[in-house]
Records
---
Amino acid sequence: MFDVADPARIRNFSIISHVDHGKSTLSDRILEITGAVDARDMREQYLDSMDIERERGITIKAQNVRVHWRGSILHLIDTPGHVDFGYEVSRSLAACEGVVLLVDASQGIEAQTLANCYLALESNLEIVAALNKIDLPAADPDRYAGEIERVLGLDGDRVLRISAKTGEGVGELLDAVVERIPPPTGDPDAALRALIFDSYYDQYRGVVSAIRVVDGTLRSGARVRFFQASSTHDVEEVGVRLPVPTAVDELGPGEVGYLVAGVRNVGEARSGETVTDAARPASEPLPGYLHPKPMVFCGLYPVDGDEFPDLRDSLEKLQLNDASVTYQPETSAALGFGFRCGFLGLLHMEIVRERLEREFDLSLIATAPSVAYVAHLTNGSVELVDNPASMPAQQTIAEIEEPLLRVTILTPAEYTGTVMELCQARRGRLERMQYLSTERLELVYTLPLAEVVVDFFDQLKSRTKGYASLDYEAAGLEVSNLVKVDILLNGQPVDAFSAILHRSKAEEYGRKMAQKLRELIPRQLFDVPIQAAIGGRFIARETVKAKRKDVLAKCYGGDITRKNKLLEKQKAGKKRMKSIGRVEIPQEAFVSALRLDD
């Protein structure tokens, strides 16, 4: 069973769809029907290994498993559906020859269905389309099969009807995978070339890499070379996931498995790395992957400054498992030492922060999210500004460009007005409007990235009762009227609360932040002014009133001049204290003030 498989019997495929259309449930049924997992060991979302995936009911990491079906060997990769994790999908597709495209039979095509389908077409993959959830009372498979044919150009008669929940039609789907998806092509006698498409760090075994062999044979005990890292290692173990990791002697062309080679330096086994034989190396590496560009930036700081080295090690190990995270050290006068991190979106940022806190036992403060602006200065130079604290002075800036997104929204026609109102309030420009059917509509807008990253998705969902779906892609840069809002405490700017905003939104942010800080900052022995400023102009002010000690308590009558003398003495002391006093901001105030959901 574990000899090198005949490539003609192998099928490598991914399951792709919009969020919540049933990918993980279908993976569960496939594991069950093929007998890969005993019924007594079966649980929901079997391939989702992280607690956070189970709690949120979403897939964050692509997972692979090998199953046997009627004499064929199927390598299945379950992928995420959320737009922030599209990079995981593109990496998984590089290890496949075909995809199963799932569409909910009660909802039809959604924004991510389109995006993932186009990804598969660009990679020249065979597409097996299936309508899932046909057991639901609201399912209308005939209507949505027609929609798939009209919108995606796939033959409506070949669209399969399945229910991943009950298992109906899943056997026919596997037959279609074997019949329609081509076997991998690869030369078993050529020099070894294998692609690493995912990795994670195991504290006992070092880096464990998910690997797809393209040419040649990868053998246990062989000496291999990593192309990009130019390092050599002895293969300790190669194996396949059934879904329990099972060691094998060798992996041949087209096979998907895992590799343990005693790699301790996480930088050596990044996704997209090509592995070849050290004694007989291949002349050219595999194409690998394009590096994803981060879209949202925020500062991550340990609550306890002594945990900074732990945070650095944790980020390095996490980046191995999630190559789309970028980070570089930065310091903040208010928060100490930390890292400026880049993410693909707001959900991605939230998940990474939560994973750092859970998996590496850290306590973190995240600053407000920002995007990367391009500042053209009056002296002709150009600066990239991904942190409001590093924004050049207003008078030195000739113009600032902000990044734009092309946003595709699919919505029921009855919500058209409210969706357009939301997009226009976020400075959006309508590019295209198209009816997919009499009830469903596609809107394409160009929107500034900064207006989308914070709560656009939540607003869209709440205004359309959850029916609208969203996909986006980068759409270049555009000059905009942007300003930096500084928050000052007792006359000193606090860099963690600075923000770069469109001038029309700046005053509102300044007022809200000042009011919020007034409630959060504990009273001192002197008045603490909280000011919001654009350049040298103040736009909002609040004051945290001083604690008052009753210095007249010991005066029982007597001359008024004695009371005045004591009050004047107290006043002078407060004035002196204010000039030298520092306002201590408790960590809870930072966490509360920077909470995204407020």
---
Amino acid sequence: MLLAGLSAAAEVPATNHFKVETLADGFVDAMEMTVVESGDIFIVERTGALKWYSPKTGEVKDVMQFDVSVRQKKKFSRETGLLGITADPNFMKNGWIYVYYSPKSEEEHRLSRFTFRAGKLTDEKNLLRISQSREDGVCHEGGSLAFDSEGNLFLSTGDNTNPFASDGYPPLDEREGRESINSQRSAGNTNDLRGKVLRIRPTDDGGYEIPEGNLFPVGTEKTRPEIYVMGCRNPWRIGVDQRTNTLYWGDVGPDARKSGPRGSSGFCEINQAPVAGNHGWPYFIADNKAYAAFDFETNKIGEKFDAKTPKNLSRLNTGLEALPPAKAPLWFEPRSCYCAGPVYYYGDHPETPGKLPKEMDSCLITYDWNNGHMQLTKLNAKGDMEWKEDFLKGKKFIHPSDVEVGADGVMYVLEYGSGWYDSNDGKLKKVTYSASELAQVEDEGPDARLEGLDIKHPGTILLAEATCLSCHQTQGQSVGPRYVDVADRYKDVKDAEKTLAHKIINGGVGVWGDIPMPPHPQYTEEQVSQMVEAILSLDPGGHKE
């Protein structure tokens, strides 16, 4: 939430001073990119391909295909694959690229260094292997990579837990056989690398050292020295301030839409860590709103956890019982899918055409994977937030999965694509600034996820801005049912609009599969009715009362 007393925002140039153009498209589940000094961009696709975009030719070339775990039949790897990439700070000299991926052969993630030579990756050096569970329903794998200015490499890891069996509250299931529904074994465990942001210093021989200042000194019993930050749910995208070396990350929050005896509704966090610390999950959310202990066998609600002296009393805990105090995020918003990008410094980039404006100096760039909106957070010399405001409002980004600023001061946006799995319409975009206003001619057509809907219908306008498009499309298949199929199923159902509106507001599971739809009480009945009216209009014969 934006805190009271913050100073007013500077006059950031309006959207019509920025041009958005597509450099390349056709990416499949595009995950992360790294922009090197030459302007070349390397991109990883979750399904295993590493690709190389050349600004000189405008071509995209295949570099390597990783044999990764992607929704295997016996072990449903919901969010595994080729997850992250970053280039070594001295890439122009050594050609080193770091990649984080999920091999098909083992239930683990691997952080490896490769050498990019003659258009190919060679000489794999494995730095870390992180064991993970691949039971049905398990997700949250993180995977973002970034260096600081001192050569330390940060890696985000998710809590590797099933979030669908806890009613949107923390998975704390202590029953036998339900281990994958308990984040205390991972995010809350000082002796486990999951649910963390790790910090290591790679060495020339392909190994790594532990830099000073991590959360637990080397040799501390029941801890892992690689841990910089613990208590993360799904720190999907990270950024590092190259002047202060402060770590930023967006932690995707739980699905609960209402607060209750078990604790708070879900929030997404943008976190800041100038020093190592514990950021609370699965015991706290947002500004350390405490969850309660919960017995999944008896449904008995216990005491709230204490942010000053949190304890992990789980039978699955292999680490310390007493945890470091929980730290609050930089800011938080109702649950969506917020991600952290870079901190922009105007003076760190040459005077090149299209460079981001001076008014964005010392701003953290963040973005929401769900609705494509971007935000700027102005930071003062101490790293405190002075103001936060929307950025590029009105521009269309379809599930942005990474945002980077190149050496030229230009911003690059990688779009995952329109669907949840196997989207082949991911795009690489370039955002440039102009001191003079630009004619607002978009290089895109209408949003393909809303194909067939009247774009002027109030319900369509609401759907375009809601989180609904993270799981649904009108024609294309995603993790949720197609809206055209919803319209067809309910075309002869009496009071269909009222039934569907109730499901959207209150949530539900079972009609279309075992993945629950979270409740959406943030919308009024009138708003939801308009959305449903738009969805039902997709039936060619019209809705029948």
---
Amino acid sequence: MPDTNPLPPPSQRVWVIGLDGVPWTLLQPWIDQGHLPTLARLQAGGASGGLRSTIQFLTAVAWTSFLTGLNPGKHGIFDFVRRIPGTYKQELTNASLRSGRSLWRILSDAGRRVGVVNVPMTFPPEPVNGFLISGLDTPGLDSAYTYPPELKAEVNDVHFIAVSTVGKSHAQYLKETLEGVDKRFELLWRTIDREPLDFYMWVEMETDAIQHCSWHLMADPSQPNHDAILQVYKRIDGHLARLVGALPEDVTLIVMSDHGAGPIAKTVYLDRWLARQGWLHYKQGKELSVGDRARRVARKAVKNSFYLAQRYLPVGVKGFLKRFTGAHAAVETFMEQAEIDWSRTKAYAVGNLGNINLNIQGRDPEGVIPPDQVDDFIAELTQALYALRDPDTGEPMVAQVMRREEIYTGPMLDRAPDLLIRWVDDKYLAVKDYDMNPDGPIFGTKQKFGRHGAAYALDQTGTHIIEGVVIFYGHGVRPGVRLEGAQLIDLAPTILHLLDTPIPREMDGKPLLDAFEPAIAEKPVRYEDEDGDLTSGSGIELTEEEARAIRERLQGLGYVA
């Protein structure tokens, strides 16, 4: 609830427009070519630059780092899933599992009025001094996704969570994506002036989604919809013209992305590579129990049946099968884990961009690596990763192998992967081996959306890169400034500084003062008197149905296995 002794009203307001996954590598050329006049106006009249994301630069990690100003070792979100200590299991993450306070919680406690719309990793919605509409991780429109609860009746007709990729041609997906952009802005106009607010935030997800399945089209103008990504950007730019044209004088506008985007050069089956090195083993022959054999047959049957069904059956039936696929996911994950021979496995892959967990004696249920040999094994594994070469170019594929302790700090460190890989130019995508086939190819050229491979029509040809964008415009901003060294975790303390609210000492970011006129830049930065609470979030557990719906959506978007 709001502080009983709130701070005096701020002299300005802050609006944040989040454009998920937008990179300067696309934005700047299209600004220069005149395709995006509104964003060109913001850049010319404001302060702008690159915005370094988190490691890994995934949606769940990045947005959580933005909204807390904390590194993942403090907030505890390392992917859309995270390990359960003492087991080999992974759990879906959500806002209730986050540690640390959100930006809007801090503002609310200081008596500021806030409105938050469609930010990922905000379900279940937390009580705020204002309103909140949760984003990508919302199970469905029938769930309690708003605070206050009665707000749902006002927005349910225009809010949506994501455009599904299932069973669609690219043309149909593009059409629905453009319509989705229009709906997102309809929700913006319905909420931005709903009540007087000190802080308002709204996120557009379709930028990221269209890049994932359209990157390859840009290289060939003869391709239908080769300008699909540009079409989405232009649609957004047109809507932003109305917002910027009506921008109140006391509003500082921030346009930002949580990470950037780029092409996928290769997919890498890390589990197969680990198996080829002798560090991961599957049960074979006599090691397979009757149950193991049954699970293997069942998994192959499911994969084949869904491939045929999604390719040939009517749309209505595909929709039913999609729902069945999601319900099936937890069972299939169990099947995969049951087939790994943990007694001989030293390392296994987790997550999307290239993370590896070790199997350590005394920590893991069937640990193999003695604690005093962990450093030597990491050195051996790291050397082997640096030796990976692109089979077509012969160039190194791995830029950096990092131990979790090297990049994270905080009480949630034990939930992080043991090793994190940074690929050269962020252009390789680690994917899971659904067939459990150590003899299969290590490298691929295409990744299909969703768990069941070709059951989903669209190829994933775009991936995330570490640098996103930030533009400050409006009240108190120095025009024409080029920002250097800005990080995603800097935005929360910057917003607090703009709104005359003390910054929590546990935040890892710092205010980006170079973007502002002296009245703001030279104002003393104030911090809270005491360290804040980094204990875990509300602990509200998702129902089985909610977890199924979220996992299904994230699989369809290529975010989880």
